[in-house]
């Protein structure tokens, strides 16, 4: 199999380049892309990439494989390799630190902007704030996000206006707290999103839905936020 | 958060609503014109009779203002996506805004002129 790898070490290289490597894949095995990277790193220890859990839980190995974002650790090569070729690039739209390692700063800033924690100004109850099973159910499909950034870095609106548009991952989390029955800051949350960019730059292209490795649907959450903003405005 | 004064509704929700409402008006207007062309035999007399009626002039003006607003919100969005340098972006926006204004005023003159 031919692997074409994005390489860039700013201390040595003037510009990024693609490195082509022939790699023998053990017969009868379907490796994950992350395993392929491990084999390549054995050959060339200077290769840099992030990974931790290697089972789709931590969200550190988001990358672009044959043009599609995903987690290397849970993407079998049988699913992405075409014509015996695998092209691996870092997540698009973020500054590259080295090889496949990107600077996620702006992505985390978007997350920070949506106040990603419960706000409740009523006196704390003695034990805990209870939630009915129905209210709890409203958080399904929202809380599972692992902040891998596969969705946001696949979104054209994120590429063009990352400082102003919150991006699919940030907005999914924004709705996660808007939908929480225990949160009392809905009004503040909505007025923070009511400008022409934060939510409304979403053009409904649904790239985010197509790539999310956890099968989540940011576009739907964005639609719910828009509905809340409309209710508030009319 | 980001507040901008250059867009039309001054908030994301209002811009969004303007886009939807104007889109419906334009769709209605287009459908009506198609229907008219299919059911009436087109001549100078039938056209001028149609444009002679006040309700149709109002409808046309509404469509015209809708085009202006719709195009403005749309182009404002496109320019803020793709033109990153302020000077050329402002130039394109100013040109687009002026053109919209000219079309609307000119349209009023055509509809109520003579
Ligand atoms: S929504 Fe999905 S793709 Fe986006 S950050 Fe969360 S887990 Fe990753
Ligand atoms: S649906 Fe919205 S958030 Fe998702 S990729 Fe498209 S523009 Fe981005
Ligand atoms: S290594 Fe943790 S998600 Fe892939």
Detail the topology: elements first, then pairings:
The complex is a heterodimer of chains A (234) and B (114).
Chain A: E1 2-7, E2 17-22, H1 33-43, E3 62-65, E4 68-71, H2 77-80, E5 85-89, E6 96-98, E7 101-102, H3 105-113, H4 133-137, H5 156-160, H6 167-178, H7 186-191, H8 207-211, H9 218-233
Parallel strand pairs in A: 1-5
Antiparallel strand pairs in A: 1-2, 3-4, 3-5, 6-7
Chain B: H1 12-39, H2 44-52, H3 54-82, H4 86-112
Helix pairs in contact in B: 1-3, 3-4
The complex binds iron/sulfur cluster (2 copies) and FE2/S2 (inorganic) cluster.
Principal-axes shape call of chain B: elongated
Helix content of chain B: over 70%
Order of helices and strands of chain A: EEHEEHEEEHHHHHHH
Radius of gyration of chain A: 20 Å
Structure description:
The complex is a heterodimer of chains A (234) and B (114). Chain A has helices spanning 33-43, 77-80, 105-113, 133-137, 156-160, 167-178, 186-191, 207-211, 218-233; strands at 2-7, 17-22, 62-65, 68-71, 85-89, 96-98, 101-102. By secondary structure, chain A is α+β, with helices and mostly antiparallel strands. A five-stranded mixed β-sheet of chain A has the order 2-1-5-3-4, covered by helices on one side. Chain A has a two-stranded antiparallel ribbon with strand order 6-7. In chain A, strand 6 and strand 7 form a beta hairpin. In chain A, helix 3 (105-113) runs parallel beside helix 6 and helix 6 (167-178) packs across helix 9. The model of chain A has no long low-confidence stretch (mean pLDDT 95). With 114 residues, chain B is mostly helical. Chain B has helices at 12-39, 44-52, 54-82, 86-112. In chain B, helix 1 (12-39) packs across helix 3 (54-82) and helix 3 packs antiparallel against helix 4. The chains are: A alpha+beta (234), B mainly alpha (114). At the A-B interface, helix 9 of A face helix 1 and helix 3 of B. One iron/sulfur cluster binds at residues 145-151, 168-169, 172, 212-214, 216, 218 of chain A. FE2/S2 (inorganic) cluster (FES) binds next to loops of chain A.
